[in-house]
Amino acid sequence: MSVLDNWGSWKDFLGDRLHQAEGDGLDDRAVSELAYEVGDYLANQVDAKNDQEAVLRDLWSVASKEEQHAIANMMVKLVHNNGTK
């Protein structure tokens, strides 16, 4: 089963990656840019595996670049307290 198949697993996975990046010394700006790049890749290259991902993909597709950055930043905030560590 892929982490993309389940919204909770996906948030835990993102939370783990966020904590790893912070532990490696990435600052908020670098995390934000990385989140934007991941969001753009997922929206354009990966089929949504659940309803939540479909909503995010649809919002991403109609958002301006500035709004896409805001979505990415909101996802970082959403998963900040998630993860298995």
Automatic annotation (TrEMBL):
Fetch the InterPro entries from UniProt: DUF3243, Uncharacterised_YmfJ, YmfJ/YflH_sf
What protein am I looking at?
A: DUF3243 domain-containing protein
